[in-house]
């Protein structure tokens, strides 16, 4: 038995011991030598054979399908962290969970504001701008109201601005490279959450309005890593060069925290330093 197989068995036994038949709507029968559910009860609820579930606990079942793991996660009423741990122990990639409720929680919003004047923004799964700080707004949306994500949510979308807003588009020196990157990110999101209504609507809308988007979309670019560098021709601040860091908040894999950094000592860093001092 492999070490991961032993750990998987120990994890399942611990969860089995923590549940009683009545917790899951089962009738209890006979005396029980140990606390918790019997293996045959788990197998019944998970819709697998008792012998197969026994092999899973003993670490001799071989490769376990994602469907069986999902069934066990439901049977044991695992939360998101426990479900992810179950899949890791079984060395199986879990299906992507559906995006959480829209909106920006208070702590993440406070973080974005607290690191100002480092430009930062939070995007949803369809690249809706859920929040940004003043410097990010100044650099990427100075022609828009700061409260755009709240007042005009239909306009506050990173990729829609890139394709349909002339002023936003003119910011990017290497527009085609940036456009390919964000279309690739959208393609990755659509693969993760194929049933997400907002994603489908955005793709349909841009496909009907923007031939350039449609052409890029049909090339099937796929991106998940940061672009690493972006050059801007800002109408007020002048030329800027920034690298982007993309983070996912724990428990909200549908959100992306974008942080833009300048090379220390560079002209762009001096621009941001002046803003810090103002």
Architecture overview:
By secondary structure, the protein is of the alpha+beta class. It has two domains: 3-90, lambda repressor-like DNA-binding domains (434 Repressor (Amino-terminal Domain), Orthogonal Bundle), CATH 1.10.260.40; 106-277, Beta-Lactamase (2-Layer Sandwich), CATH 3.30.450. Helices cover 49% and strands 10% of the residues. It has helices at 3-17, 39-46, 50-58, 66-75, 80-90, 106-114, 134-141, 148-151, 158-164, 166-170, 175-192, 197-209, 211-218, 267-277; strands spanning 120-123, 129-132, 230-234, 238-247, 256-261. A five-stranded antiparallel beta sheet has the order 2-1-5-4-3, with helices on both faces. Strand 3 and strand 4 (238-247) form a beta hairpin. The model has no long low-confidence stretch (mean pLDDT 85).
């Amino acid at each position: 038995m492999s070490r991961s197989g032993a750990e998987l068995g120990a994890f399942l036994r611990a969860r089995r011991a923590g549940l009683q038949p009545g917790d899951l709507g089962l009738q209890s029968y006979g005396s029980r030598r140990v606390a918790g559910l019997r293996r045959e009860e788990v197998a019944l609820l998970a819709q697998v054979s008792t012998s197969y579930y026994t092999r899973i606990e003993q670490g001799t079942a071989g490769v376990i399908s994602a469907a069986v793991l999902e069934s066990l996660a439901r049977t044991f009423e695992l939360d998101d962290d426990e479900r992810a741990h179950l899949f890791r122990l079984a060395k199986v990639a879990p299906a992507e969970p559906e995006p959480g409720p829209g909106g920006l929680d208070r702590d993440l919003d406070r973080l974005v504001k607290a690191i100002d004047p480092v430009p930062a923004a939070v995007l949803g799964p369809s690249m809706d701008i859920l929040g940004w700080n003043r410097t990010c707004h100044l650099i990427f949306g100075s022609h828009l109201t700061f409260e755009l994500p709240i007042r005009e949510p239909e306009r506050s979308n990173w990729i829609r601005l890139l394709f349909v807003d002339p002023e936003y588009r003119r910011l990017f020196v290497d527009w085609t490279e940036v456009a390919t990157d964000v279309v690739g990110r959208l393609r990755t999101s659509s693969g993760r959450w194929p049933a997400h209504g907002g994603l489908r609507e955005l793709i349909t809308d841009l496909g009907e309005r923007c031939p350039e988007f449609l052409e890029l979309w049909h090339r099937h670019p796929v991106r998940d890593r940061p672009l690493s560098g972006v050059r801007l021709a800002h109408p007020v601040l002048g030329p800027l060069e920034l690298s982007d860091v993309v983070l996912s908040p724990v428990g909200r894999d549908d959100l992306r925290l974008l942080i833009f950094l300048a090379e220390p000592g560079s002209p762009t860093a001096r621009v941001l330093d002046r803003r810090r001092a103002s």
